[in-house]
Amino acid sequence: MGKQGQKIKEPGLGEPELGPKKEVDIEILGGVPKKQQEEKKEEKTVSYRVEVNTDRLKRAYIFELPKGEYFKKGLKTPDQYYSELTTARIKADIYIEEGGTKRKATEEEKQELAGEITRLYNNNELNTASISVEKIKSEKR
């Protein structure tokens, strides 16, 4: 029996112990969490409505920022406002709102927005009256 016991232990120690653990690990790490991650990806943006209302440009934009990025509230100076708008414009996916629908902004339209933000800033006209920002409440499905 001693010989049989040794034979069972040697091949048996590696296989049965590692086998079930690997299956469990794969299930835990590869199964449910991946599905949860995919579902969460859909809601990983924060949307803001940015309305430009100047003599040169009147348009509503939608900035979709990655979750964790946001417009700071209570910006006191034009410098802070300019910095925040510029940073958001670079990080955001930008859409244009027209007649209740939104479409992706073209590169030319993005440059037009960037130019207007810079022009207002340089002329000391950048304020919440010329460019307003408001958070869009997300609809949970």
Estimated helix fraction: 40-55%
In total, the number of domains comes to 2
Return the average pLDDT rounded to an integer. Answer: 77
> What string gives the helices and strands in order?
HHEEHEEHE
- How many DSSP E strands? 5
Shape: globular
What class, by secondary structure content? alpha+beta
- Could you tell me the radius of gyration in angstroms? 27 Å
Q: Which secondary structure elements does this structure contain, and how are they paired or packed?
A:
Blueprint: H1 2-30, H2 32-41, E1 45-53, E2 58-66, H3 78-91, E3 93-98, E4 101-104, H4 107-122, E5 131-135
Antiparallel strand pairs: 1-2, 1-5, 2-3, 3-4
